[in-house]
Specification:
This protein is an alpha+beta fold. The chain has helices at 10-14, 18-27, 42-48, 58-65, 80-88, 101-105, 124-134; strands spanning 2-8, 31-38, 70-77, 118-120. A four-stranded antiparallel beta sheet has the order 2-3-1-4. The structure holds adenosine-5'-triphosphate (ATP). Pfam families: NDK.
Length: 138
């Protein structure tokens, strides 16, 4: 089986959507193998978002991600990387399909693409790298 890193971003934690998001992950049949609520520091976020460094949205994204606690979760299951991204929906909540986390719960506050509730690893390589960053002991 496969593992992925899920982040319940600060907007979702602030809005009290943590339980609803984890409910969907578990209802799909994925198993939670680690979870920690923490406020990420700059070094962790710089490593996590290294691929976006230099892009115009990078600094605001890092500011947003350290604006409050994030629930970091490792979820496990058959094809969980692809499966969680399907649960999450497309990056922009306005266009995300109903039935997805972003489609059902995401809002456009003018920062919708940034404040899109969740992150999920996009490949086995990203998952291994990101799990290593957020859960060095795993
Ligand atoms: P995630 O990796 O968080 O699941 P994603 O893979 O759909 O989302 P990426 O393209 O990897 O999106 O971008 C990472 C994050 O950066 C997005 O989830 C979003 O929070 C933010 N982001 C991406 N594009 C933009 C943009 N154009 N403006 C503002 N923020 C953005």
């Amino acid at each position: 089986t496969e593992r992925t890193l899920v982040l319940v971003k600060p907007d979702a934690v602030e809005r009290g959507l943590t339980g609803e998001i984890l409910r969907r992950v578990e209802a799909k049949g994925y198993r939670l193998v680690a979870a920690e609520l923490r406020t990420a520091d700059d070094a962790l976020l710089a490593a996590h978002y290294a691929e976006h460094e230099g892009k115009p949205f990078y600094a605001p994204l890092v500011d947003f991600m350290r604006s409050g606690p994030v629930l970091a979760v490792v979820a496990e299951g058959q094809r969980v990387i692809e499966g969680f991204r399907a649960l999450a929906g497309t990056t922009d909540p306005t266009g995300a399909a109903p039935g997805t986390i972003r489609g059902d719960l995401g809002r456009d506050w003018g920062l919708a693409v940034q404040q899109n509730l969740v992150h999920g690893s996009d490949s086995p390589e990203s998952a291994a790298r990101e799990i290593g960053l957020w859960f060095p002991g795993l």
